Amino acid sequence: MIKTSTLAGILLCFYAIGAKAQTEKQVIVGTRNVSLVLTVGKNGRVYQSYFGKKLLNAADYTNFAAGRHEAYITGGMEDQFQPAIQVKHNDGNPSLQLVYVSDNSSKKSDDITETTFNLKDPKYPVEVVLHYETYFNEDVIKAWTEIKHNEKSPLILNNYASNMLHFDADKYWLTQYHGDWATEMMQQESQLTSGSKVIESKQGTRPDIYQEPLFMLSLNQQADETSGEVLAGSLAWTGNFKFQFEIDQLNSLRVITGINPYASEYQLDAGKTFTTPAFIFTYSNSGKGLASRNLHRWARKYGVLDGDKPRATLLNNWENTGFKFDEKLLVNLFDDATKLGVDVFLLDDGWFANKYPRNNDKAGLGDWEENKTKLPSGIEYLVKQAEAKGVKFGIWIEPEMVNPKSVLYETHPDWILKLPNRDESYQRSQLVLDLANPKVQDYVFGILDNMMTKNPGIGYIKWDCNRTMSNTYSVYEKDKQSNLYVDNTLGLYKVLDRVRSKYPHLLMMLCSGGGGRTEYGAMKYFTEFWASDNTDPLERVYIQWGFSNFFPANTISAHITSWSKLSTVKFRTDVAMMGRMGYDINMKDMSEADLKFSQQAVKNYKRLSDVIWFGDLYRLISPYESNRADLMYVNEAKTKAALFNYMLSARYKEIFGKVKLQGLDPAKRYKVEETNMMEGAKPSFPDNGKTFSGDYLMTVGLTLNAGRIIPQSSSVIEITQQ
Ligand code: DGJ
């Protein structure tokens, strides 16, 4: 049964208010709390008249006129700032005019409605469709654009944004996320000034390694976790992206999001439709925390494969053995996985290739048969042995890449991206396969498909990608080289579509030498992503904190390793627990006490994983503002919560105030109990075991760090309604 309030919301959410004047028509694209108002002006063009908090009275929307912000500005016409789209017609005319033809709203479910605007050029056979899909309960909007034409030769698309949004605020602050290998997702906030700020990627296959396709924009005043107006947005595209923030002479800001047109002037054949990736965004007038929770809820339900389903805990062998292992050693490691109590053993790089064995990263990529010296009995044997020991078997692949030292390179040089008349350029001694080519797509799909067909017991795949695109040229693309960056990504999606139609629920981690691929275009095919190769827990607090702004905890793979020699196993574990916890450690390095602690930690994690994976996240104290970090997850019923408290580089006797909790029910009473403690350790906070009202915990808070502070120490507190 639909509740009346919901029904009212649905009725309010999509409707044309009707003709304001004879030639003006207003359409509200709305969710429970957010409205985007689009108006067809008297000149037949479509304008963004409003974007922000939903108004309480429907009648108030009639106050909005078309205004001056065209919704999807075309290049070559009268606007003199950055356009959303710029094309070149067959006759060389470099302009586009888009006039309204029709709009349509259709309900896909109780939650989802799609609104489209059909626009066309009055003089040239070019059509553009603006799509807005709203997720009512999650307050998320997904926007993308379709472009098609009927000119004789290909239409040249110079710019082809997914979306454009306009703002008229006093001031604008942009939070961007950037980094490098092992320092992914560092956050930086700055005030935007007049002119343009561009965040973009040109890395192709590892598009997110330097700049992330994610941002938060605060309006008027700097937002914090609980207050301020925020737009949080993300481009769902596993390729080059570009975000342009441009403030004009009247202090209006336009935000243009989409594929990076860099080296990608797209030649679109007549009759074909170019569909841009989706820009996914939410708006919050209660700070960044709510914006994150909206995105998490959307992601779990719609954005991530099986986002609302449990994940597996695992033991990986990469940090432990590197390339040096054989089947005997692996079978022994299965015992370690069983001892720990995790669900999966994940065999990493180094298991394949014979003519050029994969004994280091210089050879073998492309030759995906088991190495006969290391694995004489094959994968089949490993799958069975793992099963016999009570764990699922998982395996690493990097199917889009090739080493020059490989049979694949020798037999199919035309399948590889490399420039004619130039030296080959390597990263990690490897080159990229040409996924624009359907034959290569078949090959890449076949790598996974053959393995799964022979070994249906494989329960987990780690899909890696360790180099960017550079010095590229595709034999397949012939005279359409500038389509390559886009077509390569579309080729990857074709492969992943096939993988998912045959193996719809196989757990798959998206890895890209750390966080080179961290966006929602790929995440609809993957269950989680590898946030960073850097597993030093101190660094991970910052990296995972950054990702938590946009991705739910069950998608952020976080492993306990020996990367950091300074930290304790307890600190490493508590940090990994805020995401999808796993291990990548030599268990022989663990003391008896650490092993005991870890076995119990896996049990604790399994007990708490429902609230961590599916609960609402509240970031309480930021590591960017303090020598500690605090965050908590609360389940939907507000009966259970898990609080994580991390001391970072805290000083001896540094004074920390109480931590005020969030997200609880003020009227409920909760017991607060420390969990995940080393055997024999005393509780780290004075109120352990006591019961408080939600109101007290949120208004007064808890003293979590008193007395002598130990840097890189932590506590996990289980909060349970009594
Ligand atoms: C890069 C990944 O991030 C690592 O976890 C590991 O899988 C290596 N590749 C293997 O080559």
Tell me what you see in this structure.
This protein starts with a helix and ends with a strand. The protein is α+β, with helices and mostly antiparallel strands and 722 residues long. The protein is built from 13 helices and 36 strands. Helix 10 links the parallel strand 28 and strand 29 (556-561). The strands form 6 sheets. Strands 6, 7, 8, 9, 11, 12, 14, 15, 19 and 20 form a 10-stranded antiparallel sheet that branches. It has an 8-stranded parallel sheet with strand order 21-22-23-26-27-28-29-30.
Give me a quick take on this structure.
This protein has 13 helices and 36 strands. It is α+β, with helices and mostly antiparallel strands.
Chain-wise SSE layout:
Layout: H1 4-13, E1 14-19, E2 25-30, E3 34-40, E4 46-53, E5 85-88, E6 99-107, E7 112-120, E8 126-135, E9 140-149, E10 155-167, E11 172-178, E12 186-191, E13 195-200, E14 211-219, E15 229-236, E16 241-247, E17 253-259, E18 266-268, E19 273-275, E20 278-284, H2 287-303, E21 314-316, H3 318-321, H4 327-340, E22 344-347, H5 378-388, E23 392-397, E24 401-402, H6 407-411, E25 431-432, H7 438-454, E26 458-463, H8 484-502, E27 507-510, H9 520-523, E28 528-530, H10 537-548, E29 556-561, H11 569-576, E30 580-584, H12 592-614, E31 616-621, E32 628-634, E33 640-647, E34 669-675, E35 691-693, H13 694-699, E36 714-721
Parallel strand pairs: 21-22, 22-23, 23-26, 26-27, 27-28, 28-29, 29-30
Antiparallel strand pairs: 1-2, 2-3, 3-4, 5-10, 6-7, 7-8, 8-9, 9-19, 9-20, 10-17, 10-18, 11-12, 11-14, 13-16, 14-15, 15-20, 16-17, 24-25, 31-32, 32-33, 33-36, 34-35, 34-36
Helix pairs in contact: 7-8, 10-11
The structure holds (2R,3S,4R,5S)-2-(hydroxymethyl)piperidine-3,4,5-triol.
(2R,3S,4R,5S)-2-(hydroxymethyl)piperidine-3,4,5-triol binds near residues 349 and 464.
